[in-house]
Each structure stands twice: as C-alpha cells, then as structure tokens.
Amino acid sequence: MNLQQLESTARELVPGGKGILAADESTGTVTKRFNAVDIESTEENRRAYREMLFTTPGIGEYLSGVILFDETIRQKASDGTPLLEVIERQGIIPGIKVDKSTVPLPLSPDEKYTQGLDGLRDRLEEYREMGARFTKWRAVITIGDSIPTVNCIESNARALALFAAFSQEAGLVPIVEPEVLIDGDHSIERSDEVNEWTLRSTFNALYEQGVHLEGALLKPNMVISGKDSPEQASIEEVARYTIKCMLRSVPAAVPGIVFLSGGQSDVSATEHLNAMNNAMYGNLPWEISFSWARALQGKPMEIWGGDSSNAKEAQKVFHHRARMASTARYGTYSEDMEDQAA
User: Distance of alpha carbon 75 from its chain centroid, rounded?
Assistant: First the structure.
C-alpha cells in the first residue's frame, strides 16, 4: 500500500471548482430512470447514454472523477475506444462502485444492509488492472419509528470500514458513502442527530480497521428535513446544520467531503452546496465538493431520450449543470446564472 499515492489521488479528486459524476447506477436503477422518460433500457442504450455524457466537450473542466458501474467499465464507445479511456482523455479519473446493493437487515426488515464483501479483494485487483483509481461503497440508513437501530448503523459502519481497508490494500482510494435517506416526515433536528450518530460510528470503524484517512474521501448526504416534513429547512439552515454536523463528526485528516444530492432537485442541491462553500463559514479542514448522479444527469437524460440526434443538446445541458456545480464549489453560484443559460 503506497500511502503517498493514495493521498495524491484523494487530493486530485477534490481540486477547487471540480467534483465527481456518479454514473454508477446499477442496471435496475438506470432502468427505472430510463422508464420514467420512456427510454428502453437495453445494453446499447445504456452504453450510448454514458458515452454521450463522457464525450461532452470541456466537461473535464468541472469534473475530477467519474464513478462507473461494472457494466460500464467494460464497455466501448461507438468508435471502439474503451469508455474508461474516453474518460481519461478528458483529464478525469475513473472509479468504480464495488458494493452489491442492499438487502433487508436480518431481524429488522425496515432497515438495509449493503452486500459485497465476498470476493471483493479479487474484484478490486481486476478493476485496478483495468485502470480504476478509486472505489465507492454505499450504505443506507433509514429514519423512522424506532429506527435506525444500533445494529443497523454499526453493521453498515463495519462493512464500510472493511471495504475501505480492502480498497487501500489494492492501491485504490475509497469513497465511503453512509447515506441517511431523506424519506420520511422527520425534522432537520432529527436528521442532524442521526447523521452525527452515523458518521461518528463510521469513523470509529474506519479507525479500528486501520484505514488511512488522508487517502480516503467521505460521501455523505446533506442534513435536510425529511421530504414529507411539514416544516422544510431553508437553504441557510441546511448549510448551517450540515457544516456543524461535519465539524462534530469528520476528522480533519479527510481531504474532502463530496456530498451526494440525495433526491434533491438539481437547483436545490446546487444552492445548498453553494451556501456551504460561502465565505461566511470561513476556512474548513476539508474540501466541500459534490458527487452527484441525478442532480447532474436528470435533465440531460430527459432531453437525450434515447435518440442520438438529441445528444448535442443534452450535452449542453449536462455541461451547464456541471458548470453550476463548479461555481457552487466556490460559493459564487446564483439563480441568475440559470436564467442566463435559459
């Protein structure tokens, strides 16, 4: 394990003005999103869609990395170039999702546990040889009546820690993703409580497993009111709660926090990221960045619609959304930028 190399790659993934595209949707997930906009989910359509994103001119100005799914890392562009090479030509670092999705937690079916540790060492070696330089693993924490439980948070924290250790052993930077879902009617105060609990447990497990924090990244959700809560927190409240939660829970040794969008609209996610990067919060110990799927891809996917003649227009919208996220990294985003683009 080359610690210097891990640290260097982790820092390369969170430079100023750049973030990570999460293009690692499983076949089942991307099929649901395709179905919602009347796109047939064939392997060729999935390949063509990812190629459309990865070949967007100038996208490397705003993206430092792309997280891929197993199917995608093995695919080629229409001219025969491996998609992984297409990404690298843009100056973007390729990564890979390595978890095997979630199953109901034993004896607590309303909670989830993430699978994928079996055979992970061998898979990591293969992905590294293919050219991946970082990995990602997602755990899911649900807020509800009498949940989350200690068993759910601790079992997922241990799995995240083992994933991170296996990844670093293979020379790959792990992105640790303990996602507290926004589903439910809970308050932002309850969200804050569960997020801090989850993050503290995760970092305790990472410490016990011997994970080198300087060579890892955190991908958490923002601290937000439950989506069905009658009282929705303001942009400023979300930023304040989120930053305070991170300061209480995330060691300064971690180079960057790459927030997921977690069901937010593209504009809402951008506004929240912008508020967190605003100068009013002063200097923070980590980079505050993004690792988004729907907040970058939602509109481009709808415009593309499975028709190659729409690719250029979809790429323009994708480029715009990435540029908006980039400005939010600097805390200089405003809604006027959306109007100007329109």
Answer: 21
- Express each pLDDT in 270-279 by its tens digit: 999 999 998 6
Separation between Cα atoms, residue 268 and residue 285, nearest integer Å: 24
Instruction: Round to whole Å and give the CA distance between 15 and 59.
Output: 15
Rounded Cα distance between 37 and 35, Å, is: 5
Helix, strand, coil proportions of the chain in percent (round to 5)? 50, 15, 30
Which listed residue (51, 219, 271, 287) is catalytic?
A: 219
The pair of three-digit structure tokens given for residue 86, joined into one six-digit string: 């297409």
Q: Give the CA distances from residue 181 to residues 94, 225, 256, in Å, rounded to whole numbers and listed in that order.
A: 26, 10, 21
One of 25, 51, 111, 177 is an active-site residue; which one?
177
DSSP state of 170: T
User: At residue 202, what is the residue type?
Assistant: T
pLDDT tens track for 95-140: 999 999 999 999 999 999 999 999 999 999 999 999 999 999 999 9
Q: Tell me how far apart the 2 most distant CA atoms of the chain are, in Å.
A: 53
- Stated as kind and residue range, the H or E segment containing 257 is strand 256-259
Strand ranges in 107-250 using DSSP code E only, listed in sequence order: 108-114, 134-141, 173-180, 217-218
CATH 3.20.20.70 assigned to domain 3-341? The reply is yes
305 — phi, psi (to 5°)?
Answer: 60, 20
Could you tell me which of 19, 64, 56 has the C-alpha nearest to residue 274?
19
Task: Answer yes or no: 219 catalytic.
Answer: yes
Helices 43-54, 311-329: inter-axial angle, 10-degree rounding = 50
Per domain, the residue ranges of the chain are: 3-341
Helix (H, G, I), strand (E, B) or coil at 101: coil
Tokens of 114: 């993430």
pLDDT of 157-180, one tens digit each?
999 999 999 999 999 999 999 999
Judge residue 188's burial from the number of C-beta atoms within 10 Å of its C-beta, 0-12 exposed, 13-18 middle, 19 or more buried. Answer: buried
Active site residue 112: no
